[in-house]
Every structure is written in structure tokens, then in C-alpha cells.
Amino acid sequence: MYLTQVLHNAVRHRAAYPLTMFDGRVRSVAECVDRVGRLAAGLRVLGVGEGDRVALLAANSDRYHESLLAVAWAGGIVVPLNTRWVADEVRFALSDCSATVVITDERLLPVVAAVRQSAPVRTVVVMSDGRPPAGMVSFEELIGGHAPMPDVGRGGAETLGVFYTGGTTGRAKGAVLSHDNVFASAWGCLATGQFTTPGGRLLHAAPMFHLADFAIWIAGLLTGGTHVMVDGFTPGGVLAAIERYAVTDVLLVPTMIQVLADCPEAERFDVSSLVRLIYGGSPMPAATLAAARRMFPGAGLVQAYGMTELAPVATLLGPAEHDVPRLAASAGRAAPHAEVRVVDAAGDEVAAGVVGEVVVRGDHVMAGYWQRPEETAAALRDGWMHTGDAGYFDDDGYLFVVDRIKDMIIVGGENVYSVEVEHVLLQHPTVAACAVIGLPDARWGERVHALVVPAGDGADGEQLRAFCRGRLAGYKIPRTVELVASLPVSPAGKVLKSRLRQERVR
């Protein structure tokens, strides 16, 4: 199977059906297919051949959607880049994958312009209605100036894209995913009947360069959905889009959901059309889960656990399971397409209830990291992707992810999982958000340090420590509590604990 195959089926069966909605602009399946074929032809004229990398650095839009499809139509390999990266990070990724063409928008154009001369980029294509700067190519003129080309039809085990991981612990790594990888994950999720709504309207509020949103984009293509885009996450913008476009499905991370719940204007929006709220990145704190249910009473909640290297889903927790408090704290069970185990340091599977490393096997697992054979070999061992997550299964096969292995804190020889401490702190009414990290300690090796974002006034470190007593073993209670205005997060909404540690250990 190949990515653009879904377009050919769609144009035969529902040519007039709306495929994209963005900023008041609606394009049908037929219009989109025509534009994608023309854009692909333009990319070929710019020198994009089969297997060549084309980078995308732009905010969400219908043009981003068209670019993803056009690169595949032309036989190229798409490289979606993180829009929050600074110039040096963008330069590294472009050089690492040898991308010769970059498709960008006016907002990100200064970053591309800053790195163009020191990266292998030959051509910059600008998504805009106006004329681009001298020496760059207009996206719309590229479409308007070419007749549609035949689809190359490159698919199967061939590489679809290079998707760079967050790079929170060093340089980002490019996960190489094939067409088969992303379709295996999508079909497995859809087989549960608990993923995206067939023929629904999917809102892309999370960044489209991130594989979590890419997953629902693929699922929406397969099930005949309409893709609604907003060019950035704001609570008012997301809620307004749900109301305006009668959105049925949206993917968010828990931090986004909490921001929506805290929006003072939330109640004035009609969000009754929403039937599915998919989230990932971390289990939903109980308070956020309750807020999501109050805000979207008609929506079933689905948690997807995985990572970029898994294209991206490994386990799913469905709507009914969210009604069971014990299960709501889990990451769900293995999705139909995935084998999931928990193993010890020797790679042997451990018993239920025993914490070990989560490993995953299946047709959705990446081929490897782009031009990084040693790191590929370290991550892919005996056919299993080693996630770096610490977790355990219960007797019913539900996976509980307790921490990143690298984030585990060792206090006097005892393991402390930061997520466990965070879950207790989040139960206190004065805590809006928190992160727990390990800091060096002369006596115990490491000490538990909590960074807390207060919810209004009244947060107090000693009070929070006292709250933990009786809820956590003594060695797990934070020795120190630091009040902060905010926590640094990745585009996927994950707190950058490595940065927090680095800023405090110098």
C-alpha cells in the first residue's frame, strides 16, 4: 500500500466531498487531488527524484496537508521539522538528511533563510498567497504552473518519511518510517473501533509535524474524514474551530486539555459535535480527566501510548475503560498490530506487577534511525524496539508506564519513579502542574526535587511535603520543593526534565 492510494480511491467514490477546511477555505477531494498532482509535478521540476528528502517547516494548514501528499506522489521522502526548533537545530536536521528542498510558510521563513546557506538546501518553496522573496519559489505558482503528473506510487517497505525525535537529550534522531509502518499502526488502531470516526471531521490542533497528529491524519484519510486545521494551539481558537466546523474528533495532549478546561470563555462554545477525544504523551491526571468530561460530555476518551519509532501507537485505552478509576491510570492494552512486553536488563520477560523496560515488536516498528547504525542497533534488539520506558503489566494485561528509565531517581539504593510522585502532588488543590526530578545528594546519591506550578495563591513547599506523607513512602517524598511559573515542554506536551536537571546541576 502507498500513502496516496487513498486519494485515488477517494476521488472515484466521493470527489465532491470536503477533504480540508482551513481558515474558512474548503477544498473538495477532487480539488485536493488536482493540486497534489500539480505540486508533485512542480517538485519534480525542482529536482526532487525518488527517495530524495523534502523538508517541511510550517504551521498546520491545508497546504501542509497537500505538501505531505505531494512529496509522496512525486516519490520523495517527507521530513517534517519541529516548528519550535531554533535555527541551529533546523540546520542540523537539514544537513543530517541532506534535504535539498524545503517547503515553509511566511512565519518560519526567517529560520529557513538563516540556515539556507549552511545547509544542502537548493530550493525554498513558500506557502503564501503573495510573492515570495527573491530566489524562492511560490507554492501557489508551483501548483498553477504545472499539469498534474502521474503518481509514482512508491509505497510498501519504501521509506515514507524521516521523522525527527524531540532531541531532548542531545541531537535529534531521524526515525525512518515506511508506508507499511504507518499503515500497520493506523489499521491496528482502527480495528478496535475506538479510534477516529468514519467520515468524521478531524481537528488538527496538535502540530502536524508530530507523529501523534500524523497518526490521526492517516486514520482520517483511510476512513474518508475531513481534515480541519488550526495554525496553532490557543484555547479560544480550538474551541471556536470545534463549534464552527462541527468537529467530531481531536487529538490533544493532557496539558492542552487542561488549558482548555481553564479557559474562562469555554462555556460559550458549542462543542456538542465532539464524539472522540484522543490523547497521548502521558496518562491523564484525574483532575484533568474530570475536566475533560465536564467540557466534552458527549465525547469518548481514548488514550494512545507509543512513540515516533512505533509509527506511533503501541497500546490503547478505550472510552469504557476510562470509567474504571484503576484503569484510567494505565496506558491500556496492546493494540491489535503490536506485541508488547516488559523485560529485565537481560531482555527476559518479567512477571505481572514487576517493573521493567517496555519493548514492542510489529510491522509498525521503524526501520531504524537515519544514518545511525549504532543507535539503531541499541534500540532494535532481536526484533524488539526498546522504548526506554519503565512499566509493568497487571494481571489483566493493562500496561502501566511508571517513568522514563532515564528519569528514574535512585535514593539510597531505592528506585523512585517520578510519575508516581507527580500523581500525588497533582491531587493537591494548590498544584496546577509539576515535574519531579533527581538532583545530586552527598548522602543519598540523589534526592527527590519537585518543581511546582501553583494554582493561584497558597502553594507551600512544606505543606506539599506534608501532603505526601501517608501517600508515599518516606524516601519518595520530595526533599525539596521549588515553585516555578511554568515548565518547559516539547511540542508533544512532554515536560523537558533533562533541561530542568541541566539548569540545576552546573
From TrEMBL:
InterPro entries: AMP-bd_C, AMP-bd_C_sf, AMP-dep_synth/lig_dom, ANL_N_sf, ATP-dep_AMP-bd_enzyme. The keyword Ligase applies. It comes from the Bacteria. Keywords: Ligase. It holds the Pfam family AMP-binding_C. Residues 16-370 form the AMP-dependent synthetase/ligase domain. Coiled coil: none annotated. GO terms for molecular function: ligase activity. Residues 420-494 form the AMP-binding enzyme C-terminal domain. This is Long-chain fatty acid--CoA ligase. The lineage of its organism: Bacteria, Bacillati, Actinomycetota, Actinomycetes, Micromonosporales.
